[in-house]
Amino acid sequence: MPKLMEETGYNRTELYALWARFKALCSISKVPKGIDKDTFHRGLPQLSVEDDFFIDRVFAILDADGSGILEWQEFVEALSALEKGDINKRVGFLFRVYDLNGDGTIHRSEAMQFFLASLLINANDEVEEVARHFVNKIFAAVGCAHKDSMNIEDALAYMKDHPAADIYSLFGRTMVSTRQQSNANSPGKLDPMAAIIG
């Protein structure tokens, strides 16, 4: 247990609560010894409004053994990356998700694919222009306005310069932990997307 606590950032009480949550999700999963993708999507509030393309990618990365289900270790690592991870862990996780070709960077075309999928509508010229604008704003925000790709160091530098920002919302994602939601609702906290979209 101490090793798992150190690796994930969860304390003993939180891990026991996660175990109960894991077992509850297993009970409604198609495969009772783990959590299938549909249960993962519906059962985690952080992911409930995310699009299928994003969920498929997240699940494929977390399902390290390719079994089609998340076992306990994969589940706790997933929640650690989504909720408890330090900024390096969260940025690293996001990069693994968005880096479709596995070259260690996020290309504009990869970010476009995710943004278009999140719109849940058929792409046309106007929709693609909105997506391109959104991607350009992201790249400009992290200091890559004139580059076709960004690396993890670019994103980490942005986060260091903007400690109140959330890397997931920077990329238009809704995955925020309970802790981040309460911080975001605190007086004096700015919405990180307002600076990018505004």
From TrEMBL:
It comes from the Eukaryota. Residues 50-85, 86-121 form the EF-hand domain. Gene3D superfamilies: EF-hand. One of its GO terms (molecular function) is calcium ion binding. InterPro entries: CNBL1-10 (IPR045198), EF-hand-dom_pair (IPR011992), EF_Hand_1_Ca_BS (IPR018247), EF_hand_dom (IPR002048). Keywords: Calcium, Repeat. Pfam families: EF-hand_5, EF-hand_8. GO terms for biological process: calcium-mediated signaling. This is EF-hand domain-containing protein. The lineage of its organism: Eukaryota, Sar, Stramenopiles, Oomycota, Peronosporomycetes.
